[in-house]
Structures are given as C-alpha cells and as structure tokens.
Amino acid sequence: MTETRGAIIVGASSGIGEALARKLADEGYEIGLAARRTERMRRIGSELPTKSYVATMDVTDTDDAREGFFELAGAMPSVDLVVVSAGVADANYDLEWERERRTVDVNVRGFVAIATAAMEYFEETPDHASERDGHLVGISSVAAHFGNGGTQAYNASKAFVSTYLEGLRERQTGSDADVTITTIEPGFVDTDLSYGSFWECSPETAAAGIARAIRKERDHAYVTRRWRLIAWAFDLLPDRLVRRVL
Ligand SMILES: NC(=O)c1ccc[n+]([C@@H]2O[C@H](COP(=O)([O-])OP(=O)(O)OC[C@H]3O[C@@H](n4cnc5c(N)ncnc54)[C@H](OP(=O)(O)O)[C@@H]3O)[C@@H](O)[C@H]2O)c1
User: Fold this and answer.
1) pLDDT tens-digit series, residues 157-184
2) Does position 31 have pLDDT exceeding 90, yes or no?
C-alpha cells in the first residue's frame, strides 16, 4: 500500500502558493495550507481533490507561527515537503522605515522561523512516506541577483533567502538526516505581488515549474527557465551594461 504524501505550504492563500497547493494535490499530496487569510484557505482546501488542513498564522509573529507549524504538521499523517512561499514586495522609494521593516520581517525573519521549524521537524520525525527525511523548498526570486531602487529591501531579502538555502544545503553534507533543499527563483509571475513588465507567466505555469523541480529534487530552479538569462547577466556582466540593456 502506498502511504499518503503530505505537503505544507506557508503562503498558500493566494498566488504561487495557492497554485502550487492545487498542483501538488492533483499529484496526490495531502495539503497543509498556512497564511493569515483563513477563509480563503478554507475555500481553496475545499476545492482540492485530496484532504486538506488549514493553519492561520502570521509569520512575523515568529513564536506563534512556529507553534502553528508544529501543530499543523502533527495533525497531518505525514509531512514530506514544506514550501515557504509567504512573502511581501513593497516599492518604497521614500525609505519609510515601517515598510522596509515589514519586508524584512516577513521575508527574512518569517522565512527563517518556518525554515528552521521545517528542518527541526524533518530531523526529528523519522516516519515519512518518501525514502528521504524531507524536502524544504524556499520561494526566493531572480531579484536575489541584483539591487533595485525602490524594492531595495525586497531584493536584499531574496538574496538572503537564496544564500540561506544554499547554507542549509551545504549543512546537509555530513548530516545524518537526508533533507533535500530546493531554491526556487521565479521571474515575474502574474499575482497581486508582481510588478511584472515582461516574461510574466501565470501562477499555474510557475506552479508546474516548481512541481517539476520538486519531483526532480533540484537544488535550484528558475521559473520560468529563461529567467536564468537575467540572473546570469547580472552575475557575469558589468552591472551598468546589464541595466542599460534592460
Ligand atoms: N509574483 C512574482 O512576480 C514573484 C516573483 C518572484 C518571487 N515571488 C515570490 O513568491 C512568493 C509568493 O508570492 P506571490 O507572487 O504568490 O504573491 P501573493 O499572491 O501576494 O502571495 C503571498 C503569500 O504570502 C502570504 N503572506 C504574506 N505575508 C504573510 C505573513 N505575515 N504571514 C503569513 N503569510 C503571509 C500571503 O497570505 P496572507 O496574506 O493570507 O497572509 C500569501 O499567501 C513570495 O515569496 C514572493 O516574493 C513572486
């Protein structure tokens, strides 16, 4: 008998997280949905073909969010996959402190609160349906590769997410636990958060790319794949040249 696989998605109430919840449920995962908007998650959960679980949490309330994560994981028969998609993006040209702080709170503090809870869960809970001990996926951004006026806090927060996940992957070397760590760097995806101007894909297309990276246990994936060109351009070419061309 095949055991049920379970996935927790933090930031599942809209956009990429919602589309990924639907995609993974279609692939047979039971889904734990977490975010602040409870009613939206209940509705999404009721539309999934597999069993769903809902946890209301604000990741900036880190102790409460971690407690909520462990309660949600405990309520599910198996949690093999955790996706941290919760994030905010704010164009803050005036450098208002509260708005910069909010971005750092959600995208950095909130991200680490859940990522560490997921690792703790995977490292301490041996009975999973898959052969490995777990799979942590973080939704970063191509924005991690460059600074940008206005969204300076957002781009920096995503650089933090990508580098943090790289560190967790490196930490796996020599670790007793077999946890796969995947970094997803989307370009523009058509959600409420997006400032998209070109190469924008639908949340469903993004979810399909992320699900593929999960199946293949990738370390890293760009979504859609052509966004690697932008990341590579910023990584390899003189900054001024890339900005002039773009
Ligand atoms: N859209 C793009 O173009 C794009 C590109 C690159 C990367 N990304 C990344 O993709 C991720 C998902 O964004 P999206 O585009 O799908 O936007 P979205 O539709 O606005 O989704 C953001 C999700 O994060 C949750 N969230 C925000 N603040 C939260 C908090 N304090 N506590 C708990 N959950 C919180 C939201 O739920 P509640 O409001 O219900 O709490 C929602 O589920 C983000 O990390 C974003 O940086 C997006």
Assistant:
1) 999 999 999 999 999 988 888 999 999 9
2) yes
Q: Which of 189, 194, 199, 230 to mutate to test the pocket of ligand 1 (most atoms within 8 A of CB)?
A: 189
Cβ–ligand 1 contact at 13 (below 6 Å): yes
Residue 126 has pLDDT above 70, yes or no: no
29-51: buried (b, 16+ CB within 10 Å) or exposed (e) per residue? bbbbbbbeeeebbeebbeebebe
Q: Whose CA is nearest to atom 19 of ligand 1?
A: 15
CATH code of the region 6-245: 3.40.50.720
Q: Domain boundaries in the chain?
A: 6-245
Active site residue 154: yes
Tell me which of 94 and 245 has the higher pLDDT.
94
pLDDT tens string 180-205: 999 999 999 999 999 878 999 999 99
